Amino acid sequence: MINLSYVKEQYEMDKRKELLEKHPYKIWKGKNGKWYTRFPGDNEKKYLRKRNTKEDMEVLVCEFWRKKAENPTVQEIFYMWLEKKLAYKEIQKSSADKYETDFARFFVKSGFAKRHIRQIDEDDIEEFLRSQIAEYDLTAKAFSGLRIIVKGIFQFAKKKKWTSLSISEFFGDLDISQNTFRKVIKEKEDEVFSEDEVPVLVDYLKKRPTVWNFGLLLALQTGLRVGELSALKKEDWCGDYLKIRRTETRQKNDQGKNILLIKNFTKTEAGMRDVILSDGGKETLRWLVDNNPDGQYLFENSSGKRIRGNTFNKHLDVVLNHLHMHHRSIHKIRKTYCTMLIEAGCEDAVVMKQLGHTSIETSRKYYYYCNRTIEHQKQQIQSAIAI
Hints:
Helices cover 54% and strands 9% of the residues. It is built from 17 helices and eight strands. It has helices at residues 4-22, 54-70, 74-87, 93-110, 122-136, 140-159, 167-173, 188-191, 197-207, 211-222, 226-230, 279-290, 309-322, 330-343, 348-355, 360-367, 374-384; strands spanning 28-29, 35-40, 46-51, 237-238, 241-244, 247-252, 258-263, 273-276. It is elongated and about 90 Å long.
């Protein structure tokens, strides 16, 4: 027979022990015979409480943490949600760092982080979201990052039964006009290299064979992300293919400082791919391997250290200044590569595979820009509209 009273008593004892262990401050007896401890207050301040007996103090401690557990703050829930996402490897450390940055920007500065979950209703969330959009003049893309965090916090809270609010229904009913968001006008000239700029850039890089120049050249020939480029090893080259299996990533260490690491996984699952090489790409790789036969990575400086992704961006600026071309990041080389594939009539499946995209919509909507010269475009229009 199971003694239910005993089971309940043991449960209460275990719960009491768990709550006391959660208390981060010392419980001590003063010279006056009273028992003391500190409790966390607002704005990271602590306050002192006293009781006549140790048992009374432990009861106070248990009640404090029990109430906190039943009605935690948005900030407490955020870190519980984030810790779970990391523990289950649902996100990478770099993504967690970005969430923390966004949380500090939107939630902490506004004071919403200190709100207790049971006192928040749908009107409060809508007011918070609209105020952040207005204050920071958010784009639709920036708002989507804020939305991810809000959904994560409230879905986690609902599972814990701290709130009955359905955040999915809330966002389904939320009516925010697209006109509310700041529009980002992207000029074609800033997004890709034109068809008359590409040969000039390629000619410059080929005539000055250095590891940095040939890094930019290989980016033009393969469309790799800069993190994938800087993480390449010579064993990744397999004849007609370049195996993309790792990337450089930025994340914060225990001291909160940004560090660069090589991660044995790409940005997305689709990024784990075999990129087909052109003849020019194979020539570039041959030069890189011949000039660094003993290096761990394809791109290393004279002291044998791996060349970081941001170094390629800085070097591209130097090259563009020399050629009197305006600034564009190395990511625009990737967009140029995608544009050249589509303009050449490559099948959608090929474009997706080469870029490491999960859908052709991503390639066409965000990476494809007409880079033809004005004269070429005029000829096409004239041929199409011969009336």
